[in-house]
Amino acid sequence: MKNVRTVKEIIEPQYVMEGAGVLLRRSIAPQVTNRFDPFLLFDHFAFNDPAEGPIRGFPMHPHRGIETVSYILKGSVNHRDSLGNAGIIGPGDVQWMTAGGGILHEEMPRRGPDGIIDGFQLWVNLPAAQKMSRPRYQEVGDETIPVFEKDGCRVRVVAGTVNSLHGPVTEIAANPVYLDVTMEAGSKFSLPVPEEHTVLAYIFDGKGIFGDTAVASVKMVVFGEGNQIGVQADDSPVRFMLMAGAPFGEPIVPYGPFVMNTREEIQQALADLKDGTFVR
Ligand code: MN
User: Fold this and answer.
1) What's the chain's average pLDDT?
2) Is residue 280 part of a domain?
3) What is the CATH number of the domain that holds 137?
C-alpha cells in the first residue's frame, strides 16, 4: 500500500564560518543524538558575492569515520590529498570520498565565470565495521550522471536507482539515494523509498508542496514515515537535492572532522594525528 510521507520538520539553514573563513549555509551537523542517521552534515556553499573577496577555502585537514560527498552546480573545487590524489570538481560533477581510517585533504572552491560558486557537501556516516577501512574515491563527471526527464521533472541520479537508472556512485554502506531534482511549475514527482530509510530534501530554488506541506527555498525538509515521497510544483518551479539512506542505529561520537563510535576512538584519532600515524 502506498503511504506518502509527510514533513516531520523544516530546518532553517544557519550561516556558519568554516575552514579558513568560508561562509556556509549549514542545515544539519554531526551530533551525538544522530537524528538524521545515516546523514551527518549538509553544507551549502553560499559565498556568492564577489565583493567578499578571494575564497580562502579549506586548507589541509583530516577526516576519519565518514564519507564526504561534494556536488558542484557552479564554479569548481580544487582538491588534493595525503594519498597523492588531486583534481578539480567542476559544474555537475560529484566526488564521493570515503575517508575510512584516515585522510588529510585540501578543498579550495573557485568562482565560475559568472563569479558564483554554488554546491553542496553532504557527510554520510560509516558503520563501525567500516570506519577504519581504506580511503576510497568515486569521482564522477557531469556527463556520466544519468538524467531522467518525465512530465516536467528532470532528475539527475547521483546514487541509487530511479526508474531503473542506476547512479554511478556504488557500494556505499548506507545504500543511499542522492538525487538532484528540478521540477517545472505544474509538475509532480514521486519516488518509492524503503520504510526504514531516513529521507531529507534540501530545497534551494523555488517552492513546492512536499507531502502535504508547502515549502519555499532555502530549507531542509525532514520526512516522516512512509514508503513514498511525493512533491508537487504548483505555480512555481522548484529544485531540491533528495537524499535517502538506511540508518545504522549505532552510537556516534563526533569531534570536528571525525565521527567515531566511542570517545576512545576520537582520542585515538587525535593521538594518531599527533604522532604522524593518522594516514596509513
Ligand atoms: Mn574535508
Assistant:
1) 94
2) no
3) 2.60.120.10
